[in-house]
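pipeline: protein-struct stage 2 | run 1193 | MEMO1 family
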Amino acid sequence: MSTREASHAGSWYDDDDQELSSQLDEFLSRVPDSLNDNSLPVPGARVIIAPHAGYSYSGPCAAWAYKALDLSAAKRVFVLGPSHTYYLRGCALTTFSKYATPFGDLVVDKATTKELRETGKFSDMPPRREVDEHSLEMHIPFLWKRLEQTFGNDPSKYPPIVPILVGDGTEEEEKAFGQLLSPYLKDPSTAWIVSSDFCHWGSRFSYRPHYSEGGIKDFDAPRSKKHEILNVNPDWGELASTPEGPAIHQVIKVLDELAMKAVETGVHGQFYKVIHDTQNTVCGRHPIGVIMATLEAVSKDGVEEGKGKFKFVQYQRSSLVKQAFDSSVSYASAYAVV
């Protein structure tokens, strides 16, 4: 039995279980008790998108997705995140048996992991890389808190998890993984957590789009393309009539809104195109792409109106960028009823 240590506890979030519990309770208490005419958790909302930065940055935003998440029927929880620690093509599975948190350990669903591994479509995460990776870990304490609220203080009642890293892939490759995972999504006893931050703006991310001459240009584009406008044509409204035009943080919001609206269409290809056209640095674009492809595959069998598509309920940024030397990361939370 091997346990993945909570390597980011004590830095990205509190390693004291009481302090951490109080912090998560505080985040969740700030979220209204109802959204979109539904009390929380939203009945049948068993798929969420939530950010994965340090809790002081993204925790308040993530709480909106977690408070909407319906775990009442959950017998296993898939956790999909991007790889920040090594280049990955396709999807990779954990080799650990448990994931540690300051509260206790969540058990890995070894039967489901084995079943997925036997398809031959998944690689294994290198253990050291998996320990260093934060995109999955940052969701485990939040998940524990919501499982505790749903099932009480007996961890033996908590469903096991299926951690999956989702790496680089073409539109068709994402669709193939969506088709492969669709039977699991059809199972009403599965819940799904998709880990992603949105726009990473700043020189350290090599992405600094700004408003210029009616369009969006990137400070960090190659010299030969310095004046090339990104392939988007947003409606700036009154923002464009100001002497300086839209501020950088307003440009960031426009780019993120294009991505979020594409996600809400439920059309996987639309999201893929928006990311291609804007080059928005959505770090979880591939996990989002795979879950959208999975939802699309399930929807082909017919779904009730209002189901199978994400609804974004919160959007925040780490700072409001005004100067080229500033930086920020965007956070967004969404849920889907299946």
